[in-house]
Amino acid sequence: MNESGAPTPGSLRPPTPGSLRRPTSPVTTPAAPEASTSTEAPSDSMRFGRVEADGTVVLLAPDGEVVVGQWAAGDPAEGLAFYARRYDDLVVEVDLVERRLGDQRATAEQADAVLARVREALAARAFVGDVAALEARCDRLAADIEAAKAAARARKAEQRETALAARRALAEEAESLGDSTSWKATTERYAAIVEEWKALPRADRNAEQELWQRISTARTGFDKRRRQHFAE
Fold first, then answer.
1. How many helices (H) and strands (E) in the chain?
2. Within its chain, how far is the Cα of 98 from the centroid?
3. Is 78 exposed, middle or buried (0-12, 13-18, 19+ CB in 10 A)?
4. 8 Å CB contact between 150 and 166
5. Under 8 Å CB-to-CB from 26, ≥6 apart: which residues?
6. Of the ranges 12-21, 46-55, 72-81, which one carries the lowest mean pLDDT score?
7. pLDDT of 71 above 50
8. Phi and psi for 56 in degrees, rounded to 5?
9. Fewest beta carbons less than 10 Å away: which of 20, 91, 134, 158?
10. What is the pTM of this model?
11. Residue 43: what pLDDT?
């Protein structure tokens, strides 16, 4: 505090760089940062904005100049860097989700959530950076997400077909064992067929029910013959 009771820049709490929360109003006034010895290189995003003499931070957007905040904490260049880091954080989010989507460490749905968040921040205009470039990145990411969704649908369809073919093979085997007289071995094989069936991923419900009925009928017929054999 100075003698008049007004807070000095050094007494204020430092801002939190990289915050992506949408401000409650179009103009924000970050708190003053404490002295720093950081040698971080200036962000290239700073060239897409400027700070007026009164501390007003302006974004040079494709649709015109937009006031994104107010900087009254010291060096105007620091204010410009603060808002540029917000933009850089958005770029990092897009970079990260692109890589994770590419190597399937992220699902299309997870990437969709990140894309929605970045586009919301783009619309809020609370940063300084290349709006057109980030919008283009978002469009490419959206196309990648749609491609990933299509690939996932294709994989699921292939898995269903593979599972259905395996179930069909089990049904045919079960029917082929119906006339067996190797009572012990066949009984064990029928039990194994049931376990193999349970381990397969789900496919078409109606087709599965039909195939299961074939297995059940063959097994029931074999069990009946086995009981009659030992009864005799």
1. 5, 3
2. 10
3. middle
4. no
5. 67, 68, 125
6. 12-21
7. yes
8. -70, 125
9. 158
10. 0.65
11. 81
